[in-house]
Amino acid sequence: MLPWKRLLRPLAALVLTAAVAILPAAGTAQAATAPSSGWNDYSCKPSAAHPRPVVLVHGTLGNSVDNWLGLAPYLTSRGYCVFSLDYGQLDGVPLFHGLGPIDQSAAQLSAFVDRVLSATGAAETDLVGHSQGGMMPRYYLKFLGGAAKVNALVGIAPDNHGTTLSGLTNLLPYFPGAEDLLKATTPGLADQIVGSAFLSKLNAGGDTVPGVRYTVIASQYDEVVTPWRTQYLSGSDVHNVLLQDLCPLDLSEHLAIGLLDRVAFHEVANALDPAHATATTCASVFS
């Protein structure tokens, strides 16, 4: 990678952050008062315009708050009932989640969706996940009955077919016992390695299930889920999007695309309400 690209990435993140800062103060107020404006507010009732609650699914090492300080207020300010959960916590590891076995995490998501649907009275929900959170729900949809309760799954930088971590996982065979140690201590990480038993089961017979709309939003600068093209899904009712096709100036990598990229957020909003979608461009950072 050219050195100037490395330098531009943090610059792009700063520009996006600055854009968020100069947006109307209402956006900030939403973040500060999320529970009363729809974020994990179980008294929130979906509107006719947005009849399905949105469940946000954090990524590996994320949690229900920090991963969504950007997107949750963005969606609540647009009238959505928004909820987020913690999943995959290991004993003795606070704050950092998504490390437990992914099939068990999917079961936790299943229970959470049931809770949200019961509270809101909605028949279905929409799921939006970052990284592991964009991939793990596919297990719920495919094996745990989630397809009957989910209208759409939007994955932001999801590791749908695993990751090589920029080639680092290819070194595991050269360190005897390293892979077994990874499986024993952080099974959620081991499950995400290309070729894992979990991913083989997840992707056998096709990437998607009938009745669910899928959107994948990827960045060519992703350094965590690699190669980035493996994030894409194949199947009916799939929309794969490259962030740089929407805004060539957007240099967001794996974290920025999920944490603060309003160009990506705009495309999430389009995926949640395709009937009222508007073109996503670099100017969407100000929308």
UniProtKB/TrEMBL annotation:
Tagged with keyword Signal: yes
InterPro entries registered for this protein in UniProt: AB_hydrolase_fold (IPR029058), Lipase_EstA/Esterase_EstB (IPR002918)
Coiled coil: none
A GO molecular-function annotation: hydrolase activity
Keywords for the protein's UniProt record, in alphabetical order: Hydrolase, Signal
Signal peptide, first to last residue: 1-31
Gene3D superfamilies, per database record: alpha/beta hydrolase
Superkingdom of origin organism: Bacteria
Signal found in the keyword field: yes
PANTHER family per the UniProt record, alphabetical: FASTING INDUCED LIPASE, LIPASE
Protein's name according to its UniProt entry: Alpha/beta fold hydrolase
